[in-house]
Amino acid sequence: MDISYTGHVLNPERIRLMSPGPEVRSALGIRAGRLPRVPEPTSPLPEAYQGLQPVEVWRHFAALNAIPRPSGREERAREYLLSVAAQAGAPWQADNYGNVVVQVPSAEPESTAPKVALQAHLDMVCDQLPGVVHNWDTDPVRPRRVGDDIYATGTTLGADNGIGASMLLALLTTPGLRHGPLELIFTVEEEIGLKGALALDAGLVAARTLLNLDTESPEELIIGSAGARSFDVSLPLTMVGTEPGLTAYEVTVSGLSGGHSGVQIHEGHANAIKLLASLLAGIRDSAKGLGVAWVDGGSASNAIPRSARATMLVRPDERVSAEAAFARVRATIIGTWSPAEPAIQVTLAPATAPQQCIDPHGTTSLLATIERLPHGVLAWGPDDSGIVQTSCNLARVSVEEGTLNVLLSPRSFLDADLDTLQSEVEQIVRTAAGTVAATEAYPGWPPAFDSPLTALAVEAYEQVYGHPPGVKVIHAGLECGAIMAKLPGTQAISMGPRITSLHTPDEHVNAPSVASTWRLVTTLLEVLGSPVP
Description:
Layout: E1 4-6, E2 31-32, H1 55-65, H2 75-87, E3 92-94, E4 100-104, E5 116-121, E6 143-146, E7 149-152, H3 159-173, E8 182-187, H4 195-199, E9 209-212, E10 220-225, E11 227-236, E12 239-241, E13 247-254, H5 272-286, E14 291-297, E15 308-314, H6 319-337, E16 345-351, E17 356-358, H7 360-372, E18 376-380, E19 388-400, E20 403-412, H8 415-430, E21 435-442, H9 452-465, E22 470-474, H10 480-486, E23 491-494, E24 499-500, E25 508-510, H11 511-528
Parallel strand pairs: 5-8, 5-9, 9-23, 10-22
Antiparallel strand pairs: 1-22, 2-3, 3-4, 4-8, 6-7, 7-25, 11-20, 11-21, 12-17, 13-15, 13-16, 14-15, 14-19, 18-19, 19-20, 24-25
Helix pairs in contact: 1-3, 5-6, 5-7, 9-11
């Protein structure tokens, strides 16, 4: 499979993109209409956004900043977008899962152009720096500006995919735009397995041309993405009463870079869960009586774990050897990883001994299982493409009610690789009497380098930027594959501004790239809205 191409598409053939069917229909279980008007904030734009263009995009993004929107709790964000649609006089429909499709009429009343769908997701990854108190049920994101970049203050920003959603909203409120009829698709729960896109009611969407606004590099147009699954590992543990006199410590690995497991898995970032397991195993080599009572690490399936913690217990006669072993293993970890992870912290602190801990056999199984489970790049694409073909993110670990729970998030362009990986994980877990459940699979998006939409998008890109784009596939998952599987014959392309360190509190978006991406979107919509007969 050809999975990387950069260059100019000469003389793209302009063709009329035919609408495949009737207007969006109402169906059983579909709600349609307009919510009562929700007043828009009367306060001015936050200082971080003053003077930025396009104003309407930043205005809507500021409104979304004020709305907590973790995956599964997008209600208030949905209420905001429906209020914008109502004020614009745009009809909408929602499916039973909470996805919304807003209809936007053509800017030219006599236009015969086919419908074009634009799509973004409402939810965001919610994370914060250690020591930052932030309630993701109530607290707004507080933006700050550093040069040309917008950050949050101690938390994730939500530019992924709040900027894309804000561009869709700006299409409703920006006067003078030229385009054909549009369908604006707002999905939910993208960050936890593309659940909204997988559940989208296809009867709401008539368009067979799809523009996804969930890409993080303005230099590229994306025309394909990897598929993925989730592996939920459960390992039964025997909990026993904690012996009197044991000394408890909290062991922590933190300060790592983390990052998006689809975009940055190849960058060599450390995994806090893996480092914690190796640290505990190294201490146990010297303190044979070491026990583990509790482990917790990672934040989301698509985020490389930045921190992990455990409570360990040692006998009084092994305290000195355990602390010495910690210092020795810590020095090795710091020495190995500090060039790539300059903010890494590995700490040992006194803790209160819990009433129960994992028995010695369970402790051995826990550490060995975490150590053996895969993480990182597992296979590269062919022909030195530089594209990751298959990877796995060891994303979450916890001990709850006598069970070790581990979440693995594998990705691949090849279903066969995911099948092989699943078999390997099952074999690892089976040796510890555990189980593996494969869940939340979503399809890949097969690339079409020679599609008419790709040619038109390249042409529009060159008009805006003055040079050809990279036309590529990415290892991260995009909702295009899930949506296209429901809408046969759909052509798709994905684009977006520069968003860096997404899924981490260092997430930031480059403001000038938002303006140029907006120009690209509106230029392409103008081209698509005026097809040559």
